[in-house]
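Lecture notes, unit on binding sites. The following record was shown on slide 14. It pairs a sequence with 4'-deoxy-4'-aminopyridoxal-5'-phosphate.
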Amino acid sequence: MATSLLRVPPPQELLRPLAVPERLLLGPGPSNVPSRIQAAGGRQLLGHMHPEVLQVMDEIKAGTQYAFQTQNRLTLAISGSGHCAMEAALFNLLEPGDAVLVAINGIWGQRAADIARRLGMLGAARGHGRAEGTGLEGRTPRFAVPGLVQHKPLVLFITHGESSTGVLQPLEGLGELCHRHGCLLLVDAVASLGGAPIFMDQQEIDVLYSGSQKVLNAPPGSAPISFSERAREKLLKRKTKPPSFYLDMGWLANYWGCDGEPRRYHHTAPINSFFSLREGLAVLAELGLESSWERHRAVCTQLCQGLLDLGLELFVKEEKARLPTITTVRVPEGYNWKDITAFLMDNHGIEIAGGLGPTVGKVLRIGLMGCNSTSANVERVLRALRDALNRCHRSRL
Ligand code: PMP
């Protein structure tokens, strides 16, 4: 027998069956994928330019227009996670020398500023409008005026649902204000879409994006995005090509049939992810946006009351400022947050998360999104938390 040339043997772990335990995902995302959406993703693969797949892409476009409340023709899904959509927005809107104003009210503003800086347009991140704190005071559109006046930015970035703090940013009047200053409004709705009202056209939002794995209950890996006519004009006026070929909206617009031209191959889309996203958008369309918003609000209220009844302190004091999809609660005194999250995972099969960015070590984050947004899940997570408070180590210092 010839001696094998292989120096790396087949990994033993791959010779065992795939292990995926049952878990209730009540962190800030991903949330659980219901069987209908899972089944859609498990359907047989088709060619990425087959008419049936192009039809699914058209359906995703229509579903996104509904979820975003927009008529924008440049509406599609990015083949990538929420970060990819964030990069697609910034890469396509900005050119070297353009300024962007970033409202930093948690980690997502920090990330947007980071991406803008990497674009090598230092002017890009030169102004930071701040909308900090956990209440609504200072969150009226006027917070942006000094930055708009001083930096004359081309784009203002803001996060609608700040998943690191659990704060919902009001958007009323912000688009209008930006437009008065010749600025485009870019909004991240990854954590809020379907869980809190947003009206892209009425609120004059120029670029809006979201993700698949939160309220839409699809696996991560595709991200709906839409550009207003104003934003589209900016894309058409670019003097330079966007720095990413993969995220070039000119190519993507063609691939998604948004430019009226015959569709050309750009990349091989994650077709099965699109099947799942289509189904997630279909579930939202069947339920109706208003019912979905109302359900998330009611379930969040029930959770907040239950947390208070356990003697815990909510991180966001003002009820109106709370993000209905993700609730932040202060780590109770004397406890290590990691003990609590590990206890819930090990003893109750429930994922909740610690803080992120500015809230690391300070809060626990509980997400109730899409199909996970139910009264029964509120009761389940409260029961598990009560158990954790009784049984996790508490320092008396
Ligand atoms: N923006 C917000 C508000 C988010 O909550 C997240 C995900 N936690 C993202 C952007 C990034 O999305 P992804 O992890 O899918 O890249």
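Take-home: Residues 122-132 have pLDDT under 50 and may be disordered.
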